[in-house]
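Protocol step 4 of 6.
Sequence for ABC-type glycerol-3-phosphate transport system substrate-binding protein (Kineothrix alysoides) entered exactly as in the expression construct, tag removed. Do not edit the line below.
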Amino acid sequence: MKKKLVALLLAATMVTGLVGCGNSSASSSTASNPSSSSSESAEESTKENTKESTEGETAAADIDTSEHVVITYMTTGEIPTGTKEKYDAMMVELNKILTEKVNAELQIYFIPWTDYLSNYNLTLASMDGTVDLVGTASDWLDAWPNAKNGAFLELSEDMLKTYAPQTWESVPASNWDLCKYNGEIYLMPEDNYAQWVNHGFIYRLDYAKEAGLEDGVHSWADLTEYFRYVKQAYPDIIPWDSDGTQYGQLASGYILSNTDYVSIDGLNSGAMWGGTKDDLYTIYSPYVTETDLLVEYAKMMKEWDQIGVWKTDVLNNTASTNRDDYRIGRVAAEQHHTQTWTDLVSHTPANTIYADTPDAASGFFYFGEERDNVVALSITHGAMAVSAGSNNPERALMVYDLLRNDPDCYKLLCYGIQGVSWDMDESGLRILPEGYNQDTDNINGTTNYWWGRNDNLEIRDATRNWSEIDKLYDHYDSVKIEYPYGQFVADVDMIQSQINNINEIHTNYMKQISFGKYKGTAEEIVAEYQAALEAAGINDVTAELQRQFDELYK
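Step 5 output, structure tokens:
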């Protein structure tokens, strides 16, 4: 039996590498499982949604909403500029609905990306009523530290049932449990939105077939063969114009592909601790134990460097436009997550490789493919909280319930005004209206609503290659495990300085190792790296994490 969850304090610096993932996923919408789209299921779903909507409106009618209030929703991202006119028009239409249904209006408070985490936390800490609804995340936006520090309001079951009834009914009890800190609910999870931010390499499938890889790239050895062929056959193309910041993703990807490692989110930027699929709660660091594997990795990266996979000044390359270059055929690979592939695999106007080269195609080699090592994204990777400083927490919940569950509110917030920023074709797919101007009319993603997306209301983008996307997503679903550490809130007060030192060592050495820029042999650089980790106390950190796991899970 697992012991009752105890309150553990957290002051760790959260992983920031996923910020780009969240950003990309906003513009790469996914949809619910196609198997649920049969006429019978659709009819039942419609009946149930109508029932829930009616019940929700009845409950709302019994609540005193005589005073008009403004609810401020805080999110990370930039204030719309070029699209501001259409953004403002969308907000007018949205607020008409919110005013009619709950006598409230919404305004969005943006935290720009520059020094975003500090400004985000400072805004929350002020507790001056500036914000009501707070977009947050357990793995990159300090959800648990802010809950621990009192920045978020405790959400009782009665409160949720009364003011956010549709959300309460749609979230399973097991998922509400994952939103608890010290036994209280603080978060409303984004648990009905299919997204995959596991990383890998997007590559030219047509080039792979030319190289003799008829089924595409499915291993790191295949990647090496692919890059070597591209460099020889297309000397004017840089195989992968990396900007030198992706050392961590490469190293962790190699480990995922060759072990059953399952990392704990949020402890440090390298995700250097975790368990294995068959022993989830015994903690170790593969960066210490997998010596032979790291040596193999270092040798392969040296080989890639010698092949010319990247530019010789890769570690100083801060101006790479690799993704845009992939779209037009100037490079042969992009390293990012699955949802970026869903864009690059699709025949959109921006992806001119498909128009310029009729046989062009894009494959995706995901890290962990060799061992089907796939972990589903935590449901609190995106979540909504209510600020403890909110002057109108009940009305804030009512507004959130509409944003998440009301079709008209949802479509306005996520896509803009139909006929202006988007439209729908005869197949029910989302298209661009006639006369659409990307620079002035695009609302999709500008509200950065990454905290309550709902596949029941998503409208599939007609430009996406859904046959390929569904095929990969179905495979992921068949092999995935759920993220197992959702309720683990690490107490790092006594080990934070060691974690910081370990993170710095990992960064310094992995930059050299992952781009083959180290001196001496692979054996020597790995030995030096591991000795530095041990001197910094990585074994002590592992032991302390194990102690905390034992308290929580055993």
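Step 6, annotate. The chain is about 45% helix and 10% strand.
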